[in-house]
Write a structure and sequence with these properties.
single chain; 290 residues
Length: 290
C-alpha cells in the first residue's frame, strides 16, 4: 500500500517531469564510423570553412593577391634556376607556364594538407566544449584553399593567353584532377591531424614532409625524366598523376597512363579509408588530450 509520501512523490513527478537525458558515448569498434553524421552537420562544415576564409584575409593589405604573388615568385625562381641555368625540359612549352601549371595543383594540395594536419589542435576550444563529428574539422580545412586556387588559376589563364596557348575540350576534366588532389590532401591530413593531437612533433614534421614531397612530384621537371623501371613506384605518389593530368588538360603535353592513374587511385583509396578508420579510432580521446 502506498504511503502518503509515495503519493506525493508520484504527483510531483507527474507535475514536474524530468527532462530527457542524452548520453554521448565514444564510438566503439572499427566499424562504428557514423559517416552519416557529417552530412547532418553539413552547415557547420560550411560555417567553419567560411570562417577560415575570412580569417585568412582579415586585416590584409593585399588580401587574395597573395594567392597570385606566392606562385608567381616561386615560378620566377624555378624559371631562372631550372629553366635557364639547368636547362630543364618542359615538354615543348615555355618553362614558366610549365612550372606554373605544376605549382597550381601543388600549392592547393600543400595548403590543404597543412591546414588539415593542424586543424584539430587549432580548434581545441571548440572540440573540448561542443559535440559534433570531429571529421568535420579536417574536412572544412581543405575548402578554403580552393579560393587561392581559383585566384591563381585566373593568373594562369592570363599567362596562357600571353603565350597563345589555346584551350581544348580537356579543360572539362580539370575538376576531376582537382578533386583527386583534395581527396589526397584529406587522406593524408586525417592521419596527420589525429597524430598531431597526441604527438605535437607532427606539426614540425608537416613542413618537411611537404618540401620533400614537392621534389618527389613532377612540379619542376616532366615525368618523362623518371626512368621507366621506376614509374610504377613513382606513381604511388598521387600528386604525380594530378600534376601530369593538369598539364595534359591545360597544355596538351604528355599522355595519360590509365595504369598509372589506377595505381594512384588505389593508393589514395587505401590512405583515405585507413585515415578515416584511424581518425574515428582516435576520436574518443580528442577532447581529453587536445
Amino acid at each position: 500500500m502506498n504511503t502518503a509520501s509515495d503519493v506525493i512523490r508520484e504527483l510531483d513527478a507527474e507535475a514536474n517531469p524530468r527532462p530527457a537525458v542524452s548520453c554521448i558515448e565514444p564510438s566503439k569498434g572499427w566499424a562504428a564510423l557514423r559517416l552519416g553524421e557529417v552530412w547532418h552537420f553539413r552547415e557547420l562544415l560550411f560555417f567553419l570553412a567560411w570562417r577560415d576564409i575570412k580569417v585568412r584575409y582579415k586585416q590584409s593589405a593585399i588580401g587574395a593577391g597573395w594567392a597570385v604573388i606566392q606562385p608567381l615568385a616561386t615560378m620566377t625562381i624555378f624559371t631562372l634556376i631550372f629553366g635557364r641555368l639547368a636547362k630543364m625540359p618542359s615538354d615543348g612549352v615555355p618553362y614558366s607556364v610549365f612550372a606554373f601549371t605544376g605549382l597550381l595543383p601543388w600549392n592547393y594540395f600543400s595548403q590543404a594538407l597543412t591546414r588539415s594536419g593542424a586543424s584539430l589542435v587549432g580548434s581545441a576550444g571548440l572540440i573540448s566544449k561542443v559535440y559534433f563529428p570531429r571529421l568535420i574539422v579536417p574536412l572544412s580545412a581543405i575548402v578554403p584553399a580552393l579560393v587561392d586556387f581559383a585566384v591563381a588559376f585566373l593568373a594562369l589563364v592570363c599567362m596562357m593567353t600571353w603565350f597563345s596557348i589555346v584551350p581544348t575540350w580537356r579543360w572539362v576534366l580539370l575538376p576531376l584532377f582537382l578533386s583527386f588532389a583534395a581527396i589526397s590532401a584529406l587522406a593524408v591530413g586525417l592521419w596527420l591531424t589525429a597524430l598531431n593531437v597526441r604527438y605535437r612533433d607532427v606539426a614540425h614534421t608537416i613542413p618537411f614532409l611537404i618540401q620533400f614531397w614537392m621534389f618527389a612530384s613532377p612540379v619542376i621537371y616532366p615525368i618523362s625524366l623518371v626512368p621507366e623501371r621506376w614509374r610504377a613506384l613513382y606513381n604511388l605518389n598521387p600528386m604525380a598523376g594530378v600534376i601530369q593530368g593538369f598539364r595534359w588538360c591545360l597544355l596538351g603535353t604528355g599522355t595519360l597512363d590509365p595504369r598509372a592513374l589506377a595505381i594512384s587511385a588505389v593508393m589514395v583509396s587505401a590512405l583515405l579509408w585507413g585515415g578515416v578508420v584511424f581518425f574515428k579510432r582516435m576520436e574518443r580521446t580528442f577532447a581529453d588530450v587536445v
